[in-house]
Structures are given as C-alpha cells and as structure tokens.
Amino acid sequence: MKSVDNHLAEVLADIEPLAPMDLQLLDAHGCLLTEDVAADRDLPAFDNSAMDGYAVRLPDVTGASEEFPALLPVVGDIMAGSAQIERINPGTCVRIMTGAPVPAGADAIVPVEWTDGGITQVRIHRAPAEGQFIRRRGTHIRAGEVVLRAGTWLGATQIGVLAAIGRDRVKVRPKPRVVVVSTGSELVELGREAGPGQIHDSNSFMLAAAAVEAGAVAYRVGIVPDDAEQLLSTLEDQLGRADLVITSGGVSQGAYDTVKETLSRLGTVGFDRVAMNPGMPQGFGTIGTEAVPIFTLPGNPVSAYVSFEVFVRPAIRRMLGVEPLHRPVVQARCLQAFSSPEGKRQYVRGWYDAEAETVRPVGGHASHLIGDLAQANAFIVVPEEVTEVKRDDVVDVMLLERT
Ligand SMILES: Nc1nc2c(c(=O)[nH]1)N[C@H]1C(S)=C(S)[C@@H](COP(=O)(O)OP(=O)(O)OC[C@H]3O[C@@H](n4cnc5c(N)ncnc54)[C@H](O)[C@@H]3O)O[C@H]1N2
Ligand code: MOO
Ligand SMILES: [Mg+2]
C-alpha cells in the first residue's frame, strides 16, 4: 500500500496554480491578486464634509457661544453629489451635507447640532476649529499609491477598496472550476423517490459544497450509473469547463466498479490503495487533451470526504495560489480511548474544544456514517504505527473550521 504522504506528494506534483486572468471585480472575490494595484486618483477625490451642517469661514464664527451665537445668512444648500456652489464669501455660509464638496473659502464645518438648524439664516452657538469636519483631498490615499499588493487575497474589504478607487477589473488567479460527478447505479436524484435498493446521491452535494468552501467554483453534474459508456461521454462533455474533476464511487473491487476501466481509456489515471482509513481506494491522474486533473474518490461518504480534505482541498488551494494548503493541525487531549488499524493513518471524526484543548471522538468509525461526520468539527489523525489511543493521550487534530 502507498503512504498518504507519498500519494499527496504525487498529487501536488501534478497541480499548478491557474494562470492569471483579468476578471470583473465581483468575479475576483475570493481570488489571489496577481498585480500591484495603484490608485489612479486621490481619495478623498475632493475636499468634502464629514458632517451634515454648515460650511463657514472661521472669522465669521470665532468666539460663538450659547450666550453669544454667531448669526449668518445661509446663501445656499450643497447636497452630496452637487458641485454647484463653488465658493462662499465673507459673512455668509452654506448648508452642507455629509460627503458634499466643500466650497472654496470655507475653513470648517459646523455640525447642525451646534446650531438652530436655520434655513435662510443660522444661529451658531459653538465655533469649530480650523479644518474641523473637512475630509481633505488625498489625505487617505494619494494618486499613484499602491493600495493592494500582488499576493493579496481578495475578501469583501479588498473588493471594497478596489471599487472605491474605481477599478472594475483586476488581474487574479481565477477560482478553479471543479466538476463533481457521482457514479453508482443505486443513486437517485433528490426530489425523486428512492425505490428498493436505491439511495439518494449525497456525495456530489457534499463534495460540491466542500469545493466551494475550499475556494473553488463547483459544477455538480449529478449521477452517472455504473456504465462505462455513460461515464465516458459525461466526462468528455464536462472537460471543456473543468479545471479539476472529482468523481466518487466505483474504484474498489466491485464487479461493476467501472470508473477504473473507463478512465484508463481517457488519460493517465493511476489507481492505488493508500494506507489510510477511511479512504483507502484512490485514483488520481489527468484526462483529455488539456490534461485536466481528476480525483476518483471512494464512494463511501466519509471516505469521500476524508479523501477530499487530505488530497483534493490542498490541490484546489494550490490552483488558487493561496497558502496554507493544508488544514491546521493542533494537539489536544483525547477524552476517550479507541483502537486504530495497524499500518494505516486513521482519520477519526472528532469534536474539538479549543478552550479546553480536548478532543472527543464522535460516533463510529465506519465509512458510511455520514451523520456522525456532520456532527464533527475535526479529525483526530492517528499515525500509521499507533493501534491504541488511550484516554488522555495527546493526539493530532485536524481542524475543519472554515479558514
Ligand atoms: N472486496 C472489497 N470490497 C471493498 C473494499 C475492498 O478493499 N475489497 N474496499 C471497501 C472500501 S474501504 C471502500 S471505501 C469502498 C469503496 O467503494 P467504491 O469506491 O467502489 O464505491 P461504491 O462501491 O460505488 O460505493 C461504496 C458505498 O458508498 C455508497 N455511495 C456511493 N456513491 C454514493 C453517493 N454519491 N452518495 C451516497 N452514497 C454513495 C454506495 O452506495 C456504497 O454503499 O469499497 C469497499 N468495498
Ligand atoms: O477506506 Mo474505505 O475508504 O474505509 O471505507
Ligand atoms: Mg464498489
């Protein structure tokens, strides 16, 4: 049997970051920026008001107080978006709203709360300091300044600053497009009745969701029966839009496990028994003229998910160009004893308590127990040579939290 580490190394040796592309801003969300982005303008782009109030000249309001308010005629109104009033003359003021351009001649903004709120004339009972409540042009970002460096991951706030400087396209590594196919003649689509001997396809939903959580775009193709020709034509159909293909099922020793036979016709996919539990039968290689990487994962749901976490997720992250490739692994005290198969790395569903730094196995170890998987937030990773984990042993814990 092949070791987990060898299989992972072979997989990653065949995976490269995707080539950068110019994408629309929202399509770049969740991607890695591959260019330095500099502002082509100052931010703020013009002097503007930080308050709803009045734009004034300082000499006209100096010393204003409750007892001796300054009284000024209001000669106009500047709302945000208006650029009509360019200047104010001595002895006058204008009403101004937050974000509106400050007219030349104005030295400060008086918030409306410091006044009687007058429309044609205003009583001001507190004097602002020079420049108070004016957001000056270029004080935040200067034209030419780099706002985001190549290598930055674009989350919501990075998308925000790009929009603020007017960028509608940016160069990023695109998200890998992951095609997910379930194989198995026993599978039925959600919404249809599962007849005798049939079950609903859960792997393709779970794996498509996992691919999205890893940062990819997922296309769930659905179910292909255990039929070589149908699998072949589905994969040929899908290759045009795939950067990566994931299948589940049909890779073990069954008489109708057709995935192996079919894929040997399409490209170079190797099938191995990997020394892990769950997830022993694994296939990986490339298919089609574009050499699209394909993972053929075992059909048992927990086996498919563990395989995704250990092999597929790091591959997706490498394609995205993001680090770290792997889930964080921490150490924790195990609250319950259990045994582990010799010679295999075991991934045990667990509940990790970060505060107590403990982990507790969740449910059984069998690879069809998907309900237990859904209750876990971690895998306890038991090394190949360990056959018994005792209560209070310190164990490695792979955290499944979203990162
Ligand atoms: N004689 C042997 N039999 C098996 C071995 C073995 O070494 N010798 N290995 C076992 C192990 S370990 C695993 S894991 C499975 C892998 O099986 P396959 O990849 O061939 O998958 P299938 O046989 O198609 O299905 C296995 C199991 O999972 C269910 N399944 C499949 N697809 C889905 C889906 N999309 N959604 C929900 N459930 C699914 C399927 O109904 C089967 O119960 O082989 C063992 N056997
Ligand atoms: O390896 Mo299978 O993946 O144990 O259930
Ligand atoms: Mg099988």
Automatic annotation (TrEMBL):
Which cofactor(s) does the record list?
Mg(2+)
List the pathway annotation. Answer: Cofactor biosynthesis; molybdopterin biosynthesis
What NCBIfam families does its record include? Glp_gephyrin, molyb_syn
**What name does UniProt use for this protein?**
Molybdopterin molybdenumtransferase
Can you tell me where the transmembrane regions are?
Answer: none
Q: Which GO terms describe its cellular component?
A: cytosol
Q: Which PANTHER family match?
A: GEPHYRIN, MOLYBDOPTERIN BIOSYNTHESIS PROTEIN
Query: What GO MF terms are annotated?
Result: metal ion binding; molybdopterin molybdotransferase activity
Source species: Carbonactinospora thermoautotrophica
Ranges for domain MoaB/Mog: 179-318
What biological-process terms (Gene Ontology) are attached? Mo-molybdopterin cofactor biosynthetic process
Q: By its UniProt entry, which Pfam families does this protein fall under?
A: MoCF_biosynth (PF00994), MoeA_C (PF03454), MoeA_N (PF03453)
Q: Which UniProt keywords apply?
A: Magnesium, Metal-binding, Molybdenum, Molybdenum cofactor biosynthesis, Transferase
EC number(s) for this protein? 2.10.1.1
Q: Which family does it belong to?
A: Belongs to the MoeA family.
Q: What does this protein do?
A: Catalyzes the insertion of molybdate into adenylated molybdopterin with the concomitant release of AMP.
Known catalysed reaction(s)? Answer: adenylyl-molybdopterin + molybdate = Mo-molybdopterin + AMP + H(+)
Top class in the EC scheme: transferase
